[in-house]
Amino acid sequence: MNLPLHLPLHLPLLLPDWTAPRGVRAACSTRSSGVSAPPYDSLNLGDHVGDGEANVAANRDLFARAIQAQPVFMHQVHGVGVVRLDARTPHGIEADACFTTERGVACTIMVADCLPVLLTDARGETIAAAHCGWRSLSGGVIEAVCAKLATEGAMAWLGPCIGPRAFEVGPEVKAVFEADDAAAARHFKPHREGKWLADLAALARMRLQRCGVNLICGNDGTDAWCTVGNPARFFSHRRDRGLSGRMAACIWRT
Questions:
Q1: For the chain, which terminus, N or C, has the lower number of CB atoms within 10 Å?
Q2: CA–CA gap between residue 224 and residue 230 (Å, rounded)
Q3: pTM listed for this prediction
């Protein structure tokens, strides 16, 4: 993982360690350097978690000015809906993935344990982003968004998410992934009676590769990427029992 780099306004953002096509930029926020009070301290970008409306608006303005692009914050429902973004797309549009060819519009995914996946085609002409919780991932959100761009030579970056030592799931979650691809079994480890530990990032990598995306950077399942295990850096819905802010991962064309 790259160390946080300070962009304009001294906002610490994670920058992908990839060689993206010219003109493609991407970043992921942390929980630092915003205006929200606990338990949303401090750069909470989610307007649906109980934080004050003015705080969220101020944080989103800080984030937009830092990336120097126009993020579109969607209403994510753990589904597989994909929308095309342009400069007129409003915040709150319902979808769990998005793509655009327009410059200055940032495909944006909010997370606090789910996995954000950012994508670009080989030419940097179409960019995309997907919200990958286990429901949307198993439902086919990766496949749905990959259908919107040419995958030959495409690349993806996986942001922080709940890690494979923290993501405890029941047998029904394991079963739904195995029903799609028996090879998914290797990304589940027995934990305790009736429970498994799932590697969300590895499951996403498997599906990206199946779609023809083989240049995959970012989250490799190690502890540094785990939202649950890094409370000073990342929000975590599960760790904080629902009282948590949201980070944002976004990709845009300059």
A1: C
A2: 7
A3: 0.95
